Amino acid sequence: MSVTSELRRTVADLHRELTKYELVIWTAGNVSARVPGHELMVIKPSGVSYDQLGPDAMVVTDLHGKLVEGEFAPSSDTAAHAYVYRHMPEVNGVVHTHSPYATAWAARGEPIPCVLTMIADEFGGEIPVGPFALIGDDSIGRGIVETLRGSRSRAVLMRNHGPFTVGPSARSAVKSAVMLEDVARTVHFALQLGKAEPIEQHHVDRLYQRYQNVYGQ
Fold first, then answer.
1. pLDDT above 90 covers what percent of the chain?
2. In terms of C-beta density within 10 A (0-12 exposed, 13-18 middle, 19 or more buried), how is residue 59 classed?
3. Which positions are annotated as active-site residues?
4. What is the rounded CA–CA span in Å between residue 120 and residue 207?
Protein backbone atom coordinates (compact mmCIF):
# COMPACT_ATOMS: atom_id res chain seq x y z
CA MET A 1 0.00 0.00 0.00
CA SER A 2 1.42 3.42 -0.95
CA VAL A 3 1.81 6.27 1.53
CA THR A 4 -1.06 8.20 -0.06
CA SER A 5 -3.32 5.09 -0.11
CA GLU A 6 -2.76 4.49 3.59
CA LEU A 7 -3.32 8.15 4.41
CA ARG A 8 -6.47 8.27 2.31
CA ARG A 9 -7.85 5.44 4.45
CA THR A 10 -6.85 7.24 7.66
CA VAL A 11 -8.45 10.51 6.57
CA ALA A 12 -11.62 8.72 5.46
CA ASP A 13 -11.85 7.04 8.87
CA LEU A 14 -11.34 10.35 10.67
CA HIS A 15 -14.31 11.90 8.89
CA ARG A 16 -16.48 9.36 10.70
CA GLU A 17 -15.34 10.91 13.98
CA LEU A 18 -16.85 14.24 12.88
CA THR A 19 -20.26 12.66 12.44
CA LYS A 20 -19.88 10.46 15.54
CA TYR A 21 -19.39 13.54 17.73
CA GLU A 22 -22.00 15.57 15.80
CA LEU A 23 -19.54 18.24 14.70
CA VAL A 24 -20.90 18.49 11.14
CA ILE A 25 -24.14 18.20 9.18
CA TRP A 26 -24.85 17.18 5.58
CA THR A 27 -21.59 17.67 3.60
CA ALA A 28 -20.07 20.49 5.68
CA GLY A 29 -16.64 20.25 7.29
CA ASN A 30 -13.42 18.51 6.32
CA VAL A 31 -10.29 16.77 7.54
CA SER A 32 -6.93 16.93 5.78
CA ALA A 33 -3.50 15.41 6.40
CA ARG A 34 -0.06 16.29 5.09
CA VAL A 35 1.61 13.47 3.15
CA PRO A 36 4.91 12.77 4.98
CA GLY A 37 7.99 13.59 2.92
CA HIS A 38 6.00 15.12 0.05
CA GLU A 39 4.54 18.53 -0.79
CA LEU A 40 1.09 16.94 -0.86
CA MET A 41 -2.00 16.59 1.28
CA VAL A 42 -5.06 14.33 1.44
CA ILE A 43 -8.44 16.03 1.87
CA LYS A 44 -12.16 15.35 1.58
CA PRO A 45 -13.81 16.04 -1.79
CA SER A 46 -16.32 18.85 -2.19
CA GLY A 47 -20.01 18.22 -1.57
CA VAL A 48 -19.85 14.44 -1.13
CA SER A 49 -22.04 12.84 1.56
CA TYR A 50 -20.26 11.45 4.61
CA ASP A 51 -21.69 7.98 4.00
CA GLN A 52 -19.83 7.95 0.66
CA LEU A 53 -16.47 9.03 2.07
CA GLY A 54 -14.43 5.86 1.72
CA PRO A 55 -10.69 5.91 0.99
CA ASP A 56 -11.28 6.01 -2.77
CA ALA A 57 -13.29 9.20 -2.45
CA MET A 58 -10.44 11.09 -0.79
CA VAL A 59 -8.36 13.34 -3.05
CA VAL A 60 -4.69 14.24 -3.05
CA THR A 61 -3.57 17.77 -3.93
CA ASP A 62 -0.32 19.66 -3.87
CA LEU A 63 0.19 22.38 -1.28
CA HIS A 64 -1.32 24.96 -3.61
CA GLY A 65 -4.57 22.99 -3.95
CA LYS A 66 -3.95 21.47 -7.40
CA LEU A 67 -5.49 18.00 -7.79
CA VAL A 68 -2.89 15.23 -8.04
CA GLU A 69 -4.93 12.06 -7.37
CA GLY A 70 -8.65 11.39 -7.16
CA GLU A 71 -11.88 11.42 -9.12
CA PHE A 72 -13.59 14.34 -7.36
CA ALA A 73 -12.99 18.06 -7.01
CA PRO A 74 -11.26 18.91 -3.71
CA SER A 75 -13.05 20.56 -0.80
CA SER A 76 -13.88 24.26 -1.13
CA ASP A 77 -11.58 24.79 1.89
CA THR A 78 -8.57 23.20 0.16
CA ALA A 79 -6.78 26.51 -0.42
CA ALA A 80 -7.09 27.34 3.29
CA HIS A 81 -5.66 23.98 4.37
CA ALA A 82 -2.86 24.23 1.81
CA TYR A 83 -1.88 27.71 3.05
CA VAL A 84 -1.64 26.39 6.61
CA TYR A 85 0.65 23.55 5.55
CA ARG A 86 2.89 25.89 3.54
CA HIS A 87 3.32 28.32 6.43
CA MET A 88 3.16 26.07 9.51
CA PRO A 89 5.58 23.18 8.90
CA GLU A 90 4.87 21.72 12.35
CA VAL A 91 1.23 21.12 11.34
CA ASN A 92 0.36 17.77 9.74
CA GLY A 93 -3.42 17.82 10.16
CA VAL A 94 -6.16 20.42 9.72
CA VAL A 95 -9.86 20.08 10.58
CA HIS A 96 -12.80 22.37 9.89
CA THR A 97 -16.25 21.87 11.39
CA HIS A 98 -19.41 23.85 11.94
CA SER A 99 -19.95 22.39 15.41
CA PRO A 100 -22.82 24.39 16.94
CA TYR A 101 -21.41 25.79 20.17
CA ALA A 102 -17.95 26.64 18.83
CA THR A 103 -19.57 28.20 15.75
CA ALA A 104 -21.86 30.25 18.00
CA TRP A 105 -18.77 31.76 19.64
CA ALA A 106 -17.38 32.46 16.15
CA ALA A 107 -20.66 34.16 15.21
CA ARG A 108 -20.28 36.43 18.23
CA GLY A 109 -16.63 37.10 17.37
CA GLU A 110 -15.73 36.27 20.96
CA PRO A 111 -12.78 34.16 22.15
CA ILE A 112 -13.56 31.32 24.54
CA PRO A 113 -11.98 32.30 27.87
CA CYS A 114 -9.69 29.90 29.70
CA VAL A 115 -12.03 29.11 32.58
CA LEU A 116 -11.63 25.31 32.56
CA THR A 117 -8.62 23.11 33.15
CA MET A 118 -9.47 21.25 29.94
CA ILE A 119 -9.00 24.49 27.99
CA ALA A 120 -5.64 25.07 29.64
CA ASP A 121 -4.62 21.45 29.01
CA GLU A 122 -5.46 21.24 25.32
CA PHE A 123 -5.30 24.84 24.13
CA GLY A 124 -2.88 26.53 26.51
CA GLY A 125 -5.08 29.56 27.11
CA GLU A 126 -8.13 31.23 25.60
CA ILE A 127 -9.29 30.03 22.20
CA PRO A 128 -8.80 32.97 19.85
CA VAL A 129 -10.98 34.50 17.13
CA GLY A 130 -9.64 34.89 13.60
CA PRO A 131 -10.73 37.50 11.05
CA PHE A 132 -13.69 37.28 8.73
CA ALA A 133 -12.65 35.84 5.36
CA LEU A 134 -14.47 34.59 2.28
CA ILE A 135 -14.32 30.95 1.17
CA GLY A 136 -12.64 29.96 -2.07
CA ASP A 137 -9.06 31.25 -1.90
CA ASP A 138 -6.37 31.24 0.77
CA SER A 139 -7.86 34.15 2.78
CA ILE A 140 -9.11 31.82 5.48
CA GLY A 141 -5.72 30.10 5.62
CA ARG A 142 -4.00 33.45 6.06
CA GLY A 143 -6.35 34.28 8.92
CA ILE A 144 -5.69 30.93 10.61
CA VAL A 145 -1.92 31.31 10.39
CA GLU A 146 -1.91 34.95 11.52
CA THR A 147 -4.09 34.11 14.53
CA LEU A 148 -2.32 30.94 15.65
CA ARG A 149 1.22 32.27 15.29
CA GLY A 150 2.25 33.36 18.75
CA SER A 151 -0.55 31.31 20.34
CA ARG A 152 -0.41 27.90 21.95
CA SER A 153 -3.96 27.23 20.84
CA ARG A 154 -4.60 24.47 18.33
CA ALA A 155 -7.98 26.00 17.54
CA VAL A 156 -9.17 29.25 16.00
CA LEU A 157 -12.74 30.51 15.71
CA MET A 158 -12.93 32.14 12.28
CA ARG A 159 -15.33 35.06 12.64
CA ASN A 160 -18.82 34.46 11.22
CA HIS A 161 -17.69 31.08 9.87
CA GLY A 162 -16.62 28.43 12.35
CA PRO A 163 -13.74 26.58 13.99
CA PHE A 164 -10.53 25.25 12.49
CA THR A 165 -8.14 23.06 14.45
CA VAL A 166 -4.57 22.01 13.67
CA GLY A 167 -2.23 19.39 15.06
CA PRO A 168 0.93 17.36 14.58
CA SER A 169 -1.32 14.70 13.01
CA ALA A 170 -4.78 14.63 11.49
CA ARG A 171 -6.00 12.51 14.42
CA SER A 172 -4.75 15.07 16.96
CA ALA A 173 -6.47 17.85 15.02
CA VAL A 174 -9.74 15.87 15.16
CA LYS A 175 -9.26 15.38 18.90
CA SER A 176 -8.86 19.14 19.31
CA ALA A 177 -12.05 19.71 17.32
CA VAL A 178 -13.97 17.33 19.61
CA MET A 179 -12.57 18.94 22.75
CA LEU A 180 -13.21 22.43 21.38
CA GLU A 181 -16.92 21.76 20.96
CA ASP A 182 -17.11 20.25 24.45
CA VAL A 183 -15.55 23.27 26.17
CA ALA A 184 -17.47 25.74 23.98
CA ARG A 185 -20.70 24.13 25.18
CA THR A 186 -19.67 23.99 28.83
CA VAL A 187 -18.48 27.61 28.96
CA HIS A 188 -21.72 28.70 27.28
CA PHE A 189 -23.69 26.93 30.02
CA ALA A 190 -21.50 28.46 32.73
CA LEU A 191 -22.06 31.98 31.44
CA GLN A 192 -25.83 31.46 31.52
CA LEU A 193 -25.44 30.96 35.28
CA GLY A 194 -23.23 33.99 35.90
CA LYS A 195 -19.62 35.07 35.72
CA ALA A 196 -16.87 32.54 34.96
CA GLU A 197 -13.45 33.32 36.42
CA PRO A 198 -10.41 32.80 34.16
CA ILE A 199 -7.66 30.54 35.49
CA GLU A 200 -4.55 32.44 36.58
CA GLN A 201 -1.80 32.39 33.96
CA HIS A 202 0.78 30.55 36.07
CA HIS A 203 -1.75 27.76 36.65
CA VAL A 204 -2.55 27.68 32.92
CA ASP A 205 1.15 27.28 32.14
CA ARG A 206 1.54 24.38 34.60
CA LEU A 207 -1.60 22.63 33.38
CA TYR A 208 -0.54 22.94 29.74
CA GLN A 209 2.97 21.70 30.45
CA ARG A 210 1.69 18.67 32.36
CA TYR A 211 -0.92 17.68 29.81
CA GLN A 212 1.35 18.10 26.79
CA ASN A 213 4.41 16.40 28.28
CA VAL A 214 3.39 14.11 31.15
CA TYR A 215 -0.24 13.01 30.73
CA GLY A 216 -0.97 9.65 29.07
CA GLN A 217 1.12 6.61 28.20
1. 96
2. buried
3. 121, 215
4. 6
Taking the C-alpha atoms of residue 96 and residue 125, their distance in angstroms, rounded to an integer, is 20
Q: Round to whole Å and give the CA distance between 154 and 122.
A: 8
Q: State if pTM tops 0.90.
A: yes
Contact 129, 110 (CB under 8 A): yes
Instruction: Output phi, psi for 129, to 5 deg.
Output: -105, 135
Q: Is 143 exposed, middle or buried (0-12, 13-18, 19+ CB in 10 A)?
A: buried
For residue 60, which phi and psi values (nearest 5 degrees)? -115, 130
Does the pLDDT of residue 176 top 80, yes or no?
yes
Q: What's the rounded Cα separation, in Å, for the pair 150 and 197?
A: 24
Residue 217 has pLDDT above 80, yes or no: no
Query: What pLDDT score does 136 carry?
Result: 87
